[in-house]
Amino acid sequence: MLGRLNHVAIAVPDLEAAVRKYGKVLGAKVSQPLALPDHGVTVVFVELANTKTELLEPLGEHSPIAAFLERNPSGGIHHMCYEVDDIIAARDRLRDQGVRVLGDGEPKIGAHGKPVLFLHPKDFDGTLIELEQV
Amino acid sequence: MLGRLNHVAIAVPDLEAAVRKYGKVLGAKVSQPLALPDHGVTVVFVELANTKTELLEPLGEHSPIAAFLERNPSGGIHHMCYEVDDIIAARDRLRDQGVRVLGDGEPKIGAHGKPVLFLHPKDFDGTLIELEQV
């Protein structure tokens, strides 16, 4: 069921500083910042040969990463996103096996414009998993 | 400088349970457990199309992930490993820019039999970064 690792998302308190570290210091290719007000984040993509690291900074008053940054003021790895072919089939299969799907279980349109769901980190060893239909 | 994302490592309190979740529940291809006593972990590789997730369980009395699991008893994402061509050149470049390399700064032979170094998480938004020479 699991396809590619689409990205690993890191919540950062200072996007400009993080971009400097990944770009100038680590020598990775980084995108321009992209404000996604509907998702409450500004994102920078660190383009790797096989996948992406996404640097997320809160945007607006209801950012989904604000609480995480309150608990982890220095930042930290927020979630991992895996690709699936059929997100409804994936959701139903997971629910049948007792996995808790966050929210109302209906896929939302994610930051890449594709349907996504999040799985409860308590069901996966403290790891917040995003599934994205590709 | 940064090459591929080699793996994301997740520390888990119960490897058998984690293997069941990634294998049976999420439907990923998982390896047999591999005991690495020199590295203080037993590892299972979750084989994705483009990279790997590594599930790590402490092994022995001096496991490098024991303290992490004491702080995070349910488990959690422990580190991200990026590939580099030349680990000595990478280390020197990073040090020149003020990044703290963990330990004595000499590469160790990592769990894949290749030279590795770890970078201080406080220099990368709370993310422990492993560099592996490939």
Beta-strand content estimate of chain A: 35-45%
The CATH topology of chain A turns out to be 2,3-Dihydroxybiphenyl 1,2-Dioxygenase, domain 1
Question: What structural category arises from helix and sheet content of chain A?
Answer: alpha+beta
Mean pLDDT of chain A: 96
Total count of domains of chain A: 1
Quickly count the helices of chain A: 3
Radius of gyration of chain A: 15 Å
Q: How many individual β-strands of chain A?
A: 9
CATH class of chain A: Alpha Beta
Low-confidence stretches of chain A: none
**First CA to last CA of chain A: what distance?**
12 Å
Q: Could you state the oligomeric state of the chains shown?
A: homodimer
- Indicate the percent of residues in helices of chain A: 10-25%
- The helix-strand sequence of chain A is EHEEEEHEHEEE
The main pleated sheet of chain A reads as: 9 strands, mixed
CATH architectural arrangement of chain A: Roll
Query: For the largest interface in this structure, which chains are involved and how many residues does each contribute?
Result: A-B, 43 and 43 residues
